[in-house]
Design a protein that fits this description.
Receptor-associated Protein
């Protein structure tokens, strides 16, 4: 099949069939194709020009994110539920998208489906956006003739997962941002403000307090070596990111360490339990065998400790253990979650109980993140007081002693 031409965005002006002035934008493969499309729509004397896109402001340059996939899934589920055919649904969905890369991908999927491929097979060509779990669930929906219900379930799953990720990022970003701002303010004081005070102190004719001498010495080091510190921080950040990406052992160690951080660790634990429960409920309800569903849940857990524990559960279930006993053997899942899963397993309503567990722990994460700011306020005040307040006090101590000198 020939490769699909890259779409471009064009702005146009002209008159409609009634002679009224009109303007807008459209996507086409070339300028001539854009003019032809406008003529078919009855636009008279169209003036068409390619839209200029500047740097990162261009939607063409924006990458496809998981939240975009969740939005695409929700739109497709809504279209199919409304009775819109799959091909038309893909066309309408693509036409309403702002991100050029996402639009081109959906059009390519539409062309694959039009050429005779299954929808799920078309999705497998983009593994970076549609993982095995997503494609397998879509395939199950196609085989059962209930694609719209399956897409609705996947959309709900994706939306809840992205909401959960957003809450975790919020929990990690707030304290980090405050500390970084404190360090930046301190660096500015050391490099720009303290030297001005130092020039004044030289005329005092008296020994400076030890604390002030320490800060002045720190300022001199900062003025001379600030670029080394900046490069070191940048290099450390890049090295950390690459080490996590390349070394599974290092990444797993970081995940385990994160669970031990006060407050943050509890949020991450609850989030992992919520992801496990939500993924298992979604896959189990789709008719995926429990062993395979557990394997999918392990990959979606978001933490190495829970991933290994879920794989251990899978091995236990595959040898004949009940799900409750296999979960108990890991020793890291909350007792309430284990008991609710046990009740669901015995009553034959495992899917419903897993969803209740997911809802409960997602709410726990939500509440913990909302309370995080009040819990961290004392610590933040201490950090800012030591970093910024300490420097200010050090600079004013000699001024307080100026009377004794006079």
């Amino acid at each position: 099949m020939p490769k699909e031409a890259k779409l471009q965005t064009f702005s146009w002006q002209g008159k409609d069939k009634n002679g009224n002035k009109s303007k807008g934008k459209l996507d086409a493969e070339s300028l001539s194709v854009a003019k032809a499309q406008l003529r078919k729509q009855g636009i008279i004397s169209p003036k068409v020009s390619k839209e200029i896109e500047i740097g990162f402001l261009s939607s063409k340059n924006k990458p496809i994110k998981p939240v975009d996939i969740a939005f695409f899934t929700r739109q497709m589920a809504t279209m199919l539920k409304s009775g819109v055919p799959l091909m038309q649904g893909l066309d309408i969905t693509a036409g309403g998208m702002d991100k050029q890369k996402l639009k081109e991908m959906v059009y390519a999927i539409k062309n694959d489906v039009n050429s005779g491929l299954d929808f799920s097979t078309s999705l497998t060509k983009y593994p970076e956006h549609f993982d095995d779990l997503y494609c397998n669930l879509v395939h199950a929906g196609e085989q059962s003739g209930a694609l719209e219900q399956m897409l609705d379930r996947i959309a709900t799953y994706k939306e809840k997962l992205e909401t959960l990720k957003g809450k975790i990022k919020k929990a990690l970003t707030y304290p980090t941002a405050v500390i970084v701002v404190g360090l930046i303010v301190s660096a500015i004081l050391l490099v720009k403000v303290v030297p001005q005070f130092e020039m004044v102190f030289k005329n005092f004719g008296a020994d400076l307090p030890a604390f002030t001498m320490f800060v002045v010495g720190l300022s001199e080091v900062a003025q001379e070596w600030w670029w080394v510190a900046l490069l070191s921080i940048a290099a450390a950040g890049v090295s950390f990111s690459k080490a996590r990406a390349r070394s599974q052992k290092f990444s797993d160690s970081v995940d385990r360490f994160m669970l031990k951080i006060p407050v943050i660790g509890k949020i991450l634990q609850d989030a992992s339990v919520a992801r496990f429960s939500r993924t298992l409920a979604t896959t189990f309800a789709a008719g995926v065998p429990l062993v395979n569903a557990l394997e999918s849940a392990a990959g979606a857990s978001g933490n190495a400790l829970y991933r290994d524990a879920i794989l251990q559960i899978r091995n236990g279930v595959s040898t004949g253990q009940s799900l409750q006993n296999a979960i108990n053997m890991t020793g890291i899942f909350p007792n309430m979650a284990v008991q609710m899963i046990s009740i669901g397993e015995e009553a034959g309503s495992l899917e419903m109980m897993l969803e209740k567990v997911a809802d409960f722990y997602e709410e726990q994460v939500d509440n913990a993140v909302d309370n995080l700011s009040s819990l961290l306020e004392p610590l933040i005040m201490v950090v800012l007081g030591v970093l910024v307040g300490g420097l200010v006090v050090a600079m004013y101590l000699p001024i307080f002693q100026l009377g004794n000198v006079v």
